[in-house]
Model the fold of this input.
Amino acid sequence: MDVKNLDLSKILRKNFGFDTYKGEQEEIIKNVLNGKDSFVLMPTGGGKSLTYQLPSLIIEGTAIVVSPLIALMKNQVDAMRGYNKDDSIAHFMNSSLNKTQLKQVRDDVIKGKTKLLYVAPESLTKEENADFLKTIKISFYAIDEAHCISEWGHDFRPEYRKIRPVIDKIGRAPIIALTATATPKVQHDILKNLDILDATIFKASFYRSNLYYEVRPKVKPEKQIIRFIKENKGKSGIIYCLSRKKVEELAEVLQINDIKALAYHAGMDSKTRSKHQDMFLMEEVDVIVATIAFGMGIDKPDVRFVIHYDIPKSLEGYYQETGRAGRDGGEGKCITFYSYKDIQKLEKFMQGKPVAEQEIGKQLLLETIAYAETSVCRPKILLNYFGEKLEEDCGNCDNCLNPKKKFEGKDYILKFLKAVDSLNEQYKSEHIANILSGNATSAIKSFKHDQSELFGSGDEKDERFWESIARQTLINYFLEKDIDQYGILKLTKAGRAFIKKPYPIEISEAHRYEEGEEGDEDIQLNHGSGSGAGDEILFKMLKGLRKDLSKKMEVPPYVIFQDPSLEDMATRFPVTLDELTSIQGVGNGKAAKYGKEFIKLIAEYVKEFNIDRPQDLIVKSVVKKSGVKVYIIQNIDRKVNLEDIAKSKGLSISELITEIEAIINSGTKLNIDYYIDLTIDEENIDDIYDYFSESDTDSIEDALTELGEENFTEEEIRLVRIKFMSEMAN
Done:
């Protein structure tokens, strides 16, 4: 085709309404129009789709677009039809079509009306579809999300590896392969598998200066997420979780905390998934909580944040998912929660898979750990992973804005490079780190490296430190990873020059994230000393109110609210009964019975002292009584013997009493008189009940001392205390 005589700017404006091309779009389009194979590596939001959509309108025939997801195809077809008066301009052919719809698609293609035909790789390989495609004029093949071809890619799809043989069977035509994420290894795999090693390669920069990257310790992530969303009210965001169960749980938690959120995962029926996706696109909801099934090809330009509740399995997946933020060039915050426990879970999931797959998964996971724990500029790490160099720090990530302490790293880097060299450049960073730190793993022993002079030569530091040194050598391009044997470290010219003539290099300490309790719904903010209450004055006032009420109601103070509950109130400042139920040890029953006076006092105190309440710390949790607790409540209501309840659940009687105490303390009323009357003398019941009626403490130890261990058992006292608390407190 004579591209020189084509006014591509005019064609662009007429068909898509744009005045100018982005980056290398025009050059890619010219390459396709000239009938040459093309490989396009362009970040999310870079405009990949246009590079095959526009040529398809010019070249005779139908362009076949191989796409991995039905939702993605629908999105692309809808977008293309939006630019054209005739809906037959673009179709998809996949398992969602019935026979009538499929016939309509084929008729439009045969008549030459359809310029773009989207097919799933599974549909492409079907005999009947391949036979049909043989009969039509194909302008070119576009392989979208081409990273799915590589086993080293984050979304490996075995069907993608069969595309080339099917193309040969249908009939050859130029190929354009496109992806938003591919390491040098994955790029090579794509070109080799599609047999387009001579393709013209177009690589756009992976750097997106509008994205802010941050990794946080995974401590109470639900609370952090709710706080963040409320600070960014009305903004669109995506939260990624690895499991469907966590997606649904987190979406529910967000909903009860007045956040417009919906779940999305592959386990839902397609109608619900489509509905939730459309509601997000139409801004009827602000947040989608999803597995990685969501977002591929979703053209929403104003996603303002992407949160990873779980650390992703690979940096490629992570980069693509975070790339969905700020596609319009505006603000995009990318926050990831990291816990080493999550890494251990992912490693456990790999067990039982083929060895080769485990090895690949492990290497990809190591890259993710390296990214999470590094204190180096995060975009610099990401770009290095994709074979691109960022000369200056971004100045807009957590590591740049809050730099870690630096130290002189020359000797450590030199030691690491020499170790790689002396081991003939045959091993991965993890292996070298274990040798230097003296960590005798099974792999180290199998190579007899625990007997080498290198073993333990850097044992003043652990293997995680040496892994961080490995990252520094890669960032400084002293080492590179071999493409064919992914992960094997090779010295570069710069690395060999450094060994000959070392020079000072300042490097940052790596992060050491502390493990935290995941999903703990009770935050204790210990601002003061002594009681641990946030506001000591309010705490004393609440104790005074409790004392007055206890006299008025003629019950011990602890029956109303225990000290930890008052401490929590003095920290969180609840001013409604609903907020009060989120306080430690306060259920609906207690709140209804005793709460009004307390929230009135707190509200007056907040107003008088103009206190800014930490509302974002008051997170409503989904009410979930465990199966055991529900079983206990139901069987006590039926007056089943406690020994039988305990036996059926594999509990001792003491463990069962502990469960009942927890139920009572949350404000639920239970009547165990039927059991107490059978097992404890009436006189003893009265003595224990009277003791708790007059005591200022509910301590079992104090009760045993006062009543006498020779006369009463601990079990008896606990049972009567349950009776007392249920009748008086609930």
Summary: The CA atoms of residues 661 and 722 lie 6 Å apart.
